[in-house]
Amino acid sequence: MRPSYDWDEAFEAALLGPDHWKVNAAQAAIDRRLQEMNADHGGSPAERYAIQTAQAGLSVLRKHAVFQ
After folding, report:
1. pTM of the model
2. Predicted pLDDT at 67
3. What is the rounded distance in angstroms from the CA atom of residue 53 to the CA atom of residue 39?
4. Long-range contacts made by residues 14-18, C-beta under 8 angstroms, separation at least 24?
5. Cα distance between residue 1 and residue 50, in whole Å
6. For the chain, what are the domain ranges?
């Protein structure tokens, strides 16, 4: 089981009920975390990998989901 991250809740909401707003909220949460990580050189390799994976998932949702 992987650790939980601040952006997880928004990402999980986008996966469970994908709509335009949830996908954008998840991306915004991830973007904020990436800015924090870049500003202080923080974050673990595991979190960076989790972010890459989440961004790939959001990309798939954007391309293939029909947003209502």
Report:
1. 0.87
2. 62
3. 21
4. 14/58, 14/61, 15/57, 15/61, 18/61, 18/65, 18/67
5. 12
6. 8-63
